[in-house]
Amino acid sequence: MSTLPIRIFGDPVLNQVTTDIENIDGKVAALAESMIETMYKAPGVGLAANQIGVQKRLFVYDKGDGIPVVVVNPQIIETSGEWEYEEGCLSVPGLSWEIIRPNEVHLVGRDLDGNELDLQADEFEGRIFQHEVDHLNGFLLIDRLDDDQRRAAKRALRKMQITVTPHDHDGLHQLLGD
Length: 178
Ligand code: ZN
What we know:
The chain is an alpha+beta fold and 178 residues long. It is 29% helix and 25% strand. The protein contains 4 helices and 7 strands. The chain has a 5-stranded antiparallel sheet. A two-stranded antiparallel ribbon has the order 4-5.
């Protein structure tokens, strides 16, 4: 398996809602493995499938213990509290913002064996859940900024987009077998 190019702000795949994975098969496992490799190489703490151009409901993360976790078809079913944290994103490189979101998060989904996952987390891990599920729903952290932050972000991103380059899709098509 190899690493895949990470889609950058401005790429329309980042604004599209991903679809549930019906069959958790070997292809999904291979995709997850590539995503984990891509996440570690970046380096990052989480990666959603549409960040590498795959419109499927799947993310991987490592909360800092060196154990990669794969969540298929994740759904946040409950949140509570409030927590401010400086959040960044591999698809918006070099920028970060203090963002307030709920603190405690209850996430459900499936693992690569199709077993039910039921995860409750707060602070950093809870933030990863919300950030990655946002990706899968077509949102970026920029959508969570307040008005002042958003204005500053737009200026910074306009400069950044100059460096956005076309993507190489060949590796991805090989991976997906189409
Ligand atoms: Zn992100």
